[in-house]
Each structure stands twice: as structure tokens, then as C-alpha cells.
Sequence to fold (127 residues):
Amino acid sequence: MGEFENMFKAILFSRGIPLTIYVVNNLNEEVVVKVKGNRVESTEFASDIDLFSVPAGKADFLTLIPEQTGLVPYIFTELSCSTAPSEGNVVVYALMFEKEEVIADLEIKDTNVHTPDTDKMSYVRWW
Fold:
């Protein structure tokens, strides 16, 4: 590993590593993504961080920067649709520096809110 790469990593870790939530919406309806954080691996008492929508058949992302959003150790998403999709799936990725992780891959067919408590979805350990 080069000197520049070591210095870059040191700067990232000293300021907190940005975390990008990248959503691929293969549903035939828009999906609403609520990003939440908590001090423990639980949805109970979690705080809202941000919210964004991804149109049907599109992808979008949100990058969390600790200096702007604050830093909590556990991040997760809540997914919902205002109109029940009839086909497709939605995939949510967590991207951090040299790491990519699928935290949700769901076929949604309703207007319910989907969370780690209701579906097979993962938490991201941010730090």
C-alpha cells in the first residue's frame, strides 16, 4: 500500500467514513427509502436520518457524511410504496470505502413498511 493511500485512509477514519445507501428499484412502482440510525442493532428508538424516493425502474443513492448527519454505529433502511407493486424487487446496497454489502433484496407487493423487524434486511455497522 502506497504512502498516499495510507494518508487518504487516515484522513477518512479521522473524520468518519462516508456511507452510501444505493438503491436499485426494479419494482413497477416508486419506492420510498427512509434511512435510520441507532446506537444498538435494533429498530426500537431508532432515529430518522434522511428520506428519499426512487422511481420505478431507476436507481438512486444517498451518501451519509458523519460531519453532516452525525455518527451512530447502526444504520438500516425502511422501504415502502404508496401503491402496491405487482412485479419486481428492490435491492439496497451499503457502500463504504472498500466494502459493498447487500442489506436488502425484497419483492414488495404491498404498501406496508418493510424493516429488519418484518423482512430479511440487514443492519450496517458504520463504525
